[in-house]
Amino acid sequence: MKISREQVAWVAHLARLEFKEDETKKFTAQMNDILSYMDKLSLVDTNGVEPLANATLRKNAFRADDVRDSLSPDASLANAPEARGGFFQVPKVIE
Amino acid sequence: MEFEPVIGLEVHAQLLTDTKIFCGCSTRFGAEPNSHTCPVCLGMPGVLPVLNKKVVDYLLKMAMATHCTINRESSFARKNYFYPDLPKGYQISQYAEPPAEHGWVDIETEAGKRRIGITRIHMEEDAGKLIHDENSPSSYVDLNRTGVPLIEIVGDPDIRTAEEAAAYLKRLHEILVYLEICDGNMEEGSFRCDANISLRPVGQKAFGTRAELKNMNSFRNVQRGLEYEIKRQQYILESGGVVVQETRLWDDAAGVTKSMRSKEEAHDYRYFPEPDLVPVHVDDKWLEEIRSAMPELPLEKRERFVSQYQISPYDAGVLTSGRALADYFEEVARLSGQPKAAANWVMGDILRLLNEDKKTVVECPVTPTNLARMITLIQDGTISGKMAKDISEAMYTTGKTPGEIIEEKGLVQITDENALAAALSEILAKNPDQVAQYRAGKDKLFGFFVGQAMKATRGKANPQMLNDLLKKMLSNQE
Amino acid sequence: MELHQLTIHELSEKLRSKETSSEEITASTFGRIDAVEKDVHAYITLMKETAFAEAKRADEAIKKGECGVLTGIPIALKDIVCTKGTLTTCGSRMLSNFIPPYDAAVIEKLRAAGAVFTGKTNMDEFAMGSSTETSFYGTSRNPWDLERIPGGSSGGSAAAVAADECIASIGSDTGGSIRQPAALCGVVGLKPTYGRVSRFGLIAFASSLDQIGPFTKDVEDAAIMMNVLAGYDNRDSTSSIEEVPDYRQFIGKGIEGWAVGIPREFFVGGLDPEVEKAVRQAVKTVEEAGARCVEVSLPHTEYSLAVYYIVAPAEASSNLARYDGVKYGFRAPESRDLLDMYKKTRSAGFGTEVKRRIMLGTYALSSGYYDAYYKKASQVRSLIKRDFDEAFTMCDAIITPTTPTPAFRIGEKTGDPMQMYLSDLFTISTNMAGIPGISVPCGYSASGLPIGVQFLAAHFQEGRLLQIASAYEKQANIEKRRPNL
Hints:
The structure holds three protein chains of three kinds.
Chain A: H1 5-14, H2 21-38, E1 62-63, H3 73-77, E2 83-84, E3 87-91
Antiparallel strand pairs in A: 2-3
Chain B: E1 3-14, E2 51-52, H1 53-65, E3 69-70, E4 73-74, E5 77-80, E6 90-93, E7 100-109, E8 112-125, E9 129-132, E10 138-142, E11 149-155, H2 162-178, E12 191-201, E13 211-214, H3 219-238, E14 246-251, E15 256-259, E16 272-273, E17 280-281, H4 284-292, H5 298-309, H6 313-319, H7 323-336, H8 339-356, H9 368-379, H10 385-398, H11 402-409, H12 417-430, H13 432-439, H14 445-456, H15 463-476
Parallel strand pairs in B: 13-14
Antiparallel strand pairs in B: 1-11, 1-12, 3-7, 4-17, 5-6, 5-16, 7-8, 8-11, 9-10, 12-13, 14-15
Helix pairs in contact in B: 2-3, 5-6, 7-8, 7-9, 9-10, 12-14, 12-15, 14-15
Chain C: H1 8-16, H2 22-40, E1 43-46, H3 48-63, E2 74-78, H4 105-112, E3 116-121, H5 155-162, E4 168-173, H6 179-185, E5 188-191, E6 211-216, H7 219-229, E7 259-263, H8 273-288, E8 292-296, H9 304-319, H10 338-349, H11 352-365, H12 371-391, E9 397-401, H13 417-422, H14 428-433, E10 437-444, E11 450-456, H15 462-476
Parallel strand pairs in C: 2-3, 2-4, 7-8, 7-9
Antiparallel strand pairs in C: 1-3, 4-6, 5-6, 5-10, 9-11, 10-11
């Protein structure tokens, strides 16, 4: 077992997802399959190999500190599921 | 058992750029909610961040000012967590490859001088604002602040007292403001501080369990918060308890720290390299550009003022408390050629007048040239110190030159000895009783004659000349 | 031949010679859409109204002589590129109501070139899939066999070109999402070098791998599209400043004396015999065209799938965190508090495959597993790139099959994610290295399904890629068939 059902539940929480019991079971099995396949990477000797996070060789892509037009607040909020008084509205955070 | 506090501070400073770190939206504070937002800072699908070069310039300045090692190559990372004020669900920050590390600043407290290490300085984006409404089941999100550039200055756990913490913060604050890269406004949150604090038995190397302290929005609160937290942890440890690792908020009104959450949410930020941004490479040319534009820093300036102008360390401290004030003073000192007098006038009347109006030296109606001219006029005896007081106030209210004011008020000192002698003879003649008493040994009456003379000359008499002449005339007739 | 069956360069000629108008071409294309869309389901959103307005404008421009090759040509857009004012769903319920207030960079370029947009094409949800079966808006069908998938994730864009529901289309390729459906639908599909085409406005799946490219009816059209799409954009930090040549100049040039690499690791078990036969034939054709074939080795190819399914989900787990029901898109109703809203929204807004990859990626980045998964994968990625760098010191281009099999049946692989992932086996390493690749039709299976051959070239060698693809296309002269719709 690469990953337990409890770990799957924890990862789901981190990702803000929730699954029903049978889904968790199915996901656990599938993730174990996939992660077992990943095991083959351990066969590769990567000692001293720099990780490659991106295929671009570019460095130093900058913009100048010049103000550009923002969207109007209406346009910013146009796609919002809920908005009020110029704000995005969300259910209360319960700590 | 005796305990020793171990304190490390994390400072977030908002940078004084015109635009956000990754988009062209304005950073101006206090705008209508969500009016400084665009697809990039709203985290809309498919849009991409592009780094504001000025943010890197500013970071490099701070890194140089705090003696950091500047890494030639640095990169960005994503810090992943969910919160409504974080539109992308991750904050773009720097993690594995920070641009600056291993710096320090010197601080001074009652206990003496100490050097506090800086672990690293990196760039990141600010989050938006979440507004809670007690009477509503909803919270409200304003994303104007989202993407405002920050540098995070992570300090080594070198600090041992609350006083040192405040001194360290003041030092960083002063440097940031001097470099003109942060406005330093703690109330508006442009300069924020979190503290990690733990206690350990004196002599022990290992750290104790730490609490993270937040919500201290003034130097005083940082000091009070840490003082409270030291006592709280000491009490727990002395009574055999264990300190819980948690985040605590400073409650200014109650004067206590409070646990932020009952059940501490375990975080897992899943940092990984930000694929939408490319590495920042700093070459010699860039570093030289920054270095050549570096202003003199407050501590250096202070030392130079003491040696160059022969003023006290205290005065030098006051005069270098801001870059503009220091520049003002130096200009007055240079133009008048009298640094001590310049220091006295700037620290005395000028600062008092500015403070009364809650103005800064930049807004001072008295130009350095005018103040210097006035000091020269005192020096050459044209006006008296007392006249100068009136003149400086008049210059402050009207913005006029000392010459104009002197002319308007007819304030030129009487330096003609004959004219003054004539005036004094008249006074002595009018007050024979006092003259007799003075001559009988009542020295105190000298002041009376001076007063009379000043009244008669409407304050224009050169005091030194008046003193000398009066003494001479009082003794002559003996 | 009807207008909608022609290529860009053919139509462009006709427009220039005033033989036809953009309105006529657009009408012909929408006529075709009306006839076959119910079977193919290539589109999520049709843009008929604006299309005719654009056609009218194009015709006026043509009248004034102010036109380019793309002026008045109906183009379909994968629903992953943001279109200002037009619904952009990315195949997800999560964005079922999202109207972007901005155009993607490629949309701006196509607009400026005078293109007519037919609509937004179907795709696997957030480009995660190889069949369009993960789309919230139903599965697109392969025009060659409606019981089969068109490939994915850009399946709608490939099917639309194959079914003549547009003249060319735009797709995006993260692990093969242009080349695989191009092969399965019998059209040309090109994935440019990473950084060649701006990603601004391309909804991110895996940012370090995603790249936009065209689907076309022949190689020359691919060059025409690349001339418009390629180029630096200061809104995309990963966009390249490398100069863009006129890609059309490479069309029709020969490949005499070229060394073409055959990577031995691509001709192994799992390769369908009919596909192998067609690709072996393509190798011969390339030799007939005057190239010399050499065996090359890309030893880390076998790890590319494992690397991909760590790196891409890791980036995706972060890229998709913004879909939280706060600023735009779907929000689940009736939640107790914020956390509940997040979980309900994301659980109902995302489909199973997307959730599976978010889970996988979150896990691969989580504390304690980062080094074993993400970091290890990034190191192996380095080695995969190195393999290609070395191979290209020995050859001018590489030839491989595009897919292990022809199009599979709808539902055939949905139950087994690993099987589905294997269909990207030959395309994935290209994205790892960031090099360009193109899939060109190379024949048909016995049952009449198209098969594709893939050419690869070194970074920013799209010119060479088009040169060999067009030389092959000409030499092979594959029998032109049309799907029977």
